[in-house]
Amino acid sequence: GPPGPGPTGPTNPTATTPAPPSTPIAVASWRGTISATRRTQSGPLDTTQVFEGTVTFEPGAIADYDPGDDLAPLVPGDAAVYLLTPGLLRLTHSGGVGPCSYGTSSWDVLMKKSDGFLAVRPNGLAVGRITLPDTSFPVTVTCPGVGAAAGSTGVQMDLAISGTVVSSRMVGTMPAKTYGASTFTGAWNLTAQ
């Protein structure tokens, strides 16, 4: 009969080989795209705010974050810390209140260093956040039979990043978070530079 398995027999093609260790913290920066959405529905109010753009995180320290006390509890002691570099995100706002419409407006929003951070642990686990506190932007409100009038609307962004570095990339989606009448969602695609 045919020879049985043994030292010279067939090998197991499904045997696993340990993956090479990643080196997520030995990088100069992280760069990539983000998208964050806030949808607010409360009575006749229904608005959507979408923030999109390219972000860069550069090495920094908790002491460089303003205020550092807010960041310290969120960063593991063995993590490399990266802070958001100032830059612009594109905000698109749409919606209305009852029969009145805000239409769709877009603005470039300046993000500051203190609006975001990324912390990457030696094992590749990462946490971070990009936020924009409630900020007022001008809108034109149009109501049927009444016309248009200048107004303002509050916008806010909260993107919580949590994931694992795989082959110098970090890609993920934030589970929906609801605060009051607003639901926040988002996604990121970052690459080590």
Structure at a glance:
The chain has 193 residues and is mainly beta.
Fold and architecture overview:
It contains one helix and ten strands; from the N terminus they run E-E-H-E-E-E-E-E-E-E-E. The protein has 193 residues and is mainly β. Strands 1, 2, 3, 4, 5, 6, 7, 8, 9 and 10 form a ten-stranded antiparallel beta sheet that branches. A hairpin with a 4-residue loop joins strand 6 (116-120) and strand 7. The longest helix has 4 residues, at 68-71. The chain is elongated, with a radius of gyration of 23 Å.
Low-confidence stretches: 2-24
Major sheet size, sense and barrel closure = 10 strands, antiparallel
Please give the oligomerization state of what you see: single chain
Helix share of residues? under 10%
What is the count of helical runs? 1
Structural class: mainly beta
Strand-residue proportion? over 45%
The overall pLDDT, averaged over residues, is 83
Order of helices and strands: EEHEEEEEEEE
Total strands = 10
Shape, principal axes of CA atoms:
elongated
**Terminal Cα separation, in Å?**
58 Å
Q: Kindly provide the radius of gyration, computed on alpha-carbon positions and rounded to a whole number of angstroms.
A: 23 Å
